Amino acid sequence: MTHFPDELEDTLRRLLLVPALALVLIGTPVLALENTPPPPVTSEEVPVATPGVEVGPGWESPITPTDATLVGVAWEGDPAASFKVEVQDSDGNWTTASGLANDLGADAGTAEAARVEAVGDQGTEPVWIGSDATAVRVVVEAGEVSDIKINAVTSEVAGAPSGAAGALASALSLPSGTERYAFGGALLLIAVALAVIALGWSPRRHRMQIFALAAISALLFAACRPPAPPAPTPLDGSVQPAITGRSGWGARGFACGSVDYAPALKFAVVHHTAGSNNYNPGDSPAIMRGIQNYHMDALGYCDIAYNFLIDKYGQIFEGRAGGIDRAVNAAHAGGFNTASVGVAMFGNYTDIQPPAAQWNSLVHLLRWRLSVARINPALGFSTTAQGSSCNCVRWGPGTVVSFASAILGHRDVDTTACPGNAFYPQLDSIRSQVQSGIVIPPTTTTTTIATTTTIATTTALAAVTTTTAAS
Hints:
Elements lengths: L5 H9 L2 H18 L7 E6 L16 E2 L4 E8 L4 E8 L4 E8 L9 H9 L2 E2 L3 E2 L4 E10 L2 E10 L9 H8 L5 H22 L8 H16 L20 E2 L1 H4 L17 E6 L11 H15 L9 E3 L5 E3 L21 E6 L10 H17 L8 E4 L15 E4 L3 E3 L17 H10 L6 E7 L3 E7 L4 E6 L2
Helix pairs in contact: 2-4, 2-5, 5-6, 9-10
């Protein structure tokens, strides 16, 4: 074995301080990145028509420059009016979101309906236009309207802090969430190990400690692997899908006191947001914050209108507050919010189908949520239509309506094109796939009748078995 002179060995050992310092300079900014709060969401109302002048179908607004990332249209007049929003990007190209209308809405008689009434203006659903938009133009498609305005919302992705952390984020592809904490911690741990060796600690005399340190470092780096892509086929309803909670996307608090609950969930309603299909996975929290801001400030809702939202990458986000496994009444389907769960898919599916990752996450989420609620969607259900602030309900208040399936598209209950002309015909496929994965957990209840006979009942999806024990 070669032995270096003591002076040379000390010099070589001290050189380990260089990589140790480098790891500290990398590891510390990595942890700083995770603590970077998103910028606040801002909004403004921009008039695009002459006040008090009524206009009709075909009217176009002037081209209006904007740096917003999400827009919607507000107006006075015909509550059934619809609009088209044309968006120009930085290359001068134009894209169109059409059929925008007031097709959500709180149910009449609720605290949310009173809050919507206080806002005053009627408003369409918002459209995500992204950070590359430079101008918008509004076109009236139907209805006689006046005082048209654009509600412009700017919701940006959380950026890296200045200095070393910002430079690091630009230079490297880093894991996110808890994986980023583990990655930064592992770098700092290795830096400490190199530093103590440089300062005289001998590896030869501490083989067991080195082995333990190496094992811990390996485990920490293993935790930093990128999250696995969505499963090629969704899991059944006994397994909860991964859901990003409200704190994970930076939600505001619920604005109407206590959350409104139904006694039990009855059905699900599928939506699309009708916004741009051009966004990155990291944009999705900003899209969530933008939609929530628009729903609460422009439309007057107590919170984001949907119970869940899913991006095209298959990421599922908790929407309205109140609990992902509880029957929270939201504002996603005017007249039919009570006892329903609203699931919205980011994007516009008027002409194209959702990508596989988004489709599979929708199927898995519905399998799980309906299983938890003990719903066999194939049995159908009946419910009573309510009045709504949207003036979009297909039936008058108090009408009892029956459906053959507990999985509906938004247009099944309200006058809207949602969830898109291309996707809506595929709902039968969604229903079939969800049905095959429904797993209703069996429950056993015991009731004693006249203290002499006990009836034990076990309920499952396909059968009900009743046995009676003699006294």
